[in-house]
Amino acid sequence: MFKNDIFGKTIAEDFNKQIWKKFNKAVKDYQLIEDGDRIAVCISGGKDSMLMAKCIQRLQSFGKPDFRAEYIVMDPGYAPANRLKIEDNARLMDIPVSFYETSIFESAESSGSNPCFLCARLRRGFLYKKAQELGCNKIALGHHFDDVIETILMGMLYGSQMQTMLPKLHSENYEGAQLIRPLYLVREDDIISWAKLNSLSFIDCACRMTEKRSDDEHNSKRHEIKMLLRQLRSTNPAVDMNIFRSAENVNLRKLISYHDGNKKHHFLDDYDKGITVKGTVNKKYENK
After folding, report:
1. Mean of the per-residue pLDDT values for the chain?
2. Domain range holding 249?
3. Which pTM value belongs to this model?
């Protein structure tokens, strides 16, 4: 099946450094895919999830790690043209997808306030449930490097919090299930370039509500962050990696406060522990 795999070859040859090596680095460094895994590869029909599926398919062909994959498309109520586009791309790229119909778009649209949040929540719940039905212990989503740094900035600028999008996490509601992001280190521009090289076109957001919006309404907070990053790159090409590294190099002693999910910690809690009787700073605590 992989001998004449044109799309897989362009990943491994034309985009070896930009995509294939970064995909494998994420898989290895974050232990995303391991022997014995059965992975529900979740395909939305966009460029990111389709590339992810192709990378996982190629990795699976080598047998190391030894894992199984189910390529699933959750149809939330796509317009016929969008559904056909996904089917055509899957056939063209030789990805053996299985479709599962839902009425998520209809439910989200009738909810009134914040339909996008409800849609995302319903989608995630459906994917976890379907993965368990298929005997999968992990679900793979197509979030990439740009999603990660945009999430960091959005949390800081709009959410008053410092957090990131993790490469994998345990499900809180489905025991034994994990979510993984194999494209965690792959940049969006490289995904776009790969699609252009192969003359591939994919659906964007296929939500019926998005299709009804005007251009002004479509300018979301994430779009604002994208524009901000574009501006920052013009004077600092390393800004993306600097933002990413900032989430790896957190010094808890330099934070006003933080919490570990259960307990909140404040810098005043340990503020005086490094002070000696004479009021001088203990060398052990200096510059920490």
Report:
1. 87
2. 222-270
3. 0.86
